[in-house]
Structures are given as C-alpha cells and as structure tokens.
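Exercise (ungraded).
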Amino acid sequence: MGFEEAPFDVVEASRRVWLERWDEPAAASGMAVYTAILRSYQLLADQVNDVVRAHDLTFPRYEVLTWLATDPDSSLSLSWISKTLRIPPATVTNIIDRLEDDKLVRRVPHPSDARTTLAEITARGRRVADEATEDLNASVYERIGLSEAKRNRLVDLLAELRAKGSEFDVERSGEVIEEVRLRQADHRRSASA
Amino acid sequence: MGFEEAPFDVVEASRRVWLERWDEPAAASGMAVYTAILRSYQLLADQVNDVVRAHDLTFPRYEVLTWLATDPDSSLSLSWISKTLRIPPATVTNIIDRLEDDKLVRRVPHPSDARTTLAEITARGRRVADEATEDLNASVYERIGLSEAKRNRLVDLLAELRAKGSEFDVERSGEVIEEVRLRQADHRRSASA
DNA sequence: GACGTTTGCTACGAGCTCGAAGTAATCTGC
DNA sequence: GCAGATTACTTCGAGCTCGTAGCAAACGTC
C-alpha cells in the first residue's frame, strides 16, 4: 500500500540514543511520544490518502466535505471551517476552490453578513462524501490493528495530551457538542415530518 | 504558538456522528483513532516546527541531521535515509541539497559502490543538530502534558498499532537496534582510546 | 454618522513533497 | 563476459501549503 517496512523500530532506537546522549528521561519520553505519533500518522495517512484519492479527493477536501454532509443546514462558513479544522484561511479558500471546480460544493453568500461566504454541499458532493466514507470505514478504520479496548485507551490518552496542549476548549467542548447534536436531532425530526 | 483553540473536541464530536450515522462501532473507533492521531500530530508538529525553524531547519532536515550526528561514521547513504526515515528518494535528494547549501552536510562517494552516495555531517552540522535538539527537548519534549507512566503507555499502544500495520520489521527490530548500539559503543571506546 | 479597528475572505508567491522518467552503476544467470 | 534486470540517485514538473498583503464589510466609540 505504498510503503515498505523499515528495518527496525525507529522510535525505540531513538529513545535509547536520547537516554544515553541527553540524560533527561522526560526529553527521551517526550521525543518518543512525538516520533511515535509522527510515524503512526504517516502509516495511517498513507492508507487514508490512497482511499480518498480513489474518489478524486485529498484528505482535507474529504474532511471538509464530510463536515458539510453532516451539517443540518448543509452549509458552513469558511471561517468556521478554518477555525475548527485548524486549516489556515488561505488553504480553506484553495480547498473550496477545488471542491467547487468538481461541483461538490457551491459558494453562497451569508444571508445577514456580507463579509462571510458559506460553502454549501451539492447532491453530488453528498454522494461522493458517503461513498468515500464507506470505503474508508471498510478499508482503513475497521482494520486498525488494535482491540476496541485499546483503541479507547489510545484515544483517551491522546485527548488528554491535546487538552493539556489546549488544542480545544475543554471547558465548553461538552456543551457545544450537545448543542450541535440537538440541532441535528431537531433537523432530522422536522425533515421526516 | 501559531494556533488557536478550537471551540470543541473534533474527535469526540465526529465519533458521535459516526456511531449514529454508520452503525459500526469498529468504524467509529477506528475513525476516532485516526483523527486523534492526526490532531495530536498537528498540535505537536506546530510546536516542533517553530523550534527547528528558529535554527534554520525544517523537521525532515533536522531529522536527517540528527541521525547523521549519532552515526559512528558520521555518514549514511541516501538510500538508507530514504528507507528508514520513510522519505521518498526524490525528497531525500532535495533535503540533502538544502543541507549542503547550508554547509551542514557534504556529499561523499561510497568507497566501494559507485552507485551510492553518502551524506556526511560537517562540524557545523553537528553543532546545529545539538543546539536544535537541546532546544526541542526543553521547549517541546519535556513539556508534553502527560505523566511519565502515560507517555510510556501511549508509546506502547502506538508501537502495537505500527507493528500490526507492519511499519517496521518486528522480527528483526530488536537485534538490529542492538547491533547499532554495539557499533556505537565500539566507536566511542576507540575514539577515547 | 464618521473614523479607526476588527473580521472574513482572496490573490500572490515562495517553498516543500513526491510521482514519473531518465541515467549510471552493479548484479545475475547463462 | 555479456544481456537484461535491479538498484541508487537526480531532474522535472504538477500540486499542495501557507505567510503576507490587500480589500471590503461590519462593528464600536464617540
């Protein structure tokens, strides 16, 4: 799948070098954490990229498309996308340009604030998003080599790491997510009525 | 440090959407694992990049330089670098070009195989590598917000994930690392003799 | 209601990544 | 000892990221 086995575990090898050379256990373990995350990221990103590329997407384009597909209004402002997916504004512009070229998304002016523009998913975009997600689920996500219990432990440890590094607003996160879910539930109820 | 807090935890929010929409727990947990790794990677990479940039390096350049700095011969073949650091050959060429421009590394022909060229670290390169590492240790690695016990648990879980995804040769990894350490120990002994 | 500040987006450009094709050296099988 | 395959590296070019600068709309203050 686009990569070869390395001859040995680079994380473990570096950790030993660090312990011997820098004599500060916290530096060695921190380096190991970063290197392990980097390598794991590369391993999974390779697989994910292969899948989304088969649907004529890149991962950032797929990510944006998926958030649009699950939004009750089918549209999000470019600045919201930039903030929550942590993509610089100039990059968001480029991503939406490409998605628009492929007719998966449409730019729409914001009804009350003329400064902001919304990206709205098209029917075609929704179809592509769903197909890509099913493929990703089956080809990558369900095949990660860890038991359900270990996946949860891993996600929890990374959540703590991110929270301590203030990657997201820990205080408000829970309620914001609840708000969003309520809006979605409302939307589904009224759509099926 | 170059990023703002997101309004909520994207990993947790996506996990809930997945559970409701795709009804396959393994897909939801796998997606959460990938997203958590991606976000953690971005969080730490931002910090790491800020530090190495202050030393006029990019992370891949720093990584190569560090491996050269700890090598007993102070030199590695470009193909070895490509394989073990998982960097495509064309990218290695570019990295070594830039390091050579900055006089941190020198290209040297391989003594017995005219096809392969070695990258050899210069005195200046060694100094830059050490300074950057001290800075990274103090500014990033020692400050990761997890206890020593949790760092170890995290690194172990990621090692299992990588091993199951055959990121490295599990069978041989241990002995290869031992070999390298013996060579390094030998080298130090003879250097101080 | 005018003025300075903030916010949201886009245009531009420099820099990086990496697939594909090309060149040169080496190895393999006969 | 030679033809064909393999290995190592480089060149080229397309595509992506993202910092910077710019513009327009909206907001806050007086």
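Further reading is listed at the end of the chapter. For now, observe: The longest strand of chain B covers residues 105-109. Chain B touches chain A through 83 residues (CB under 8 Å).
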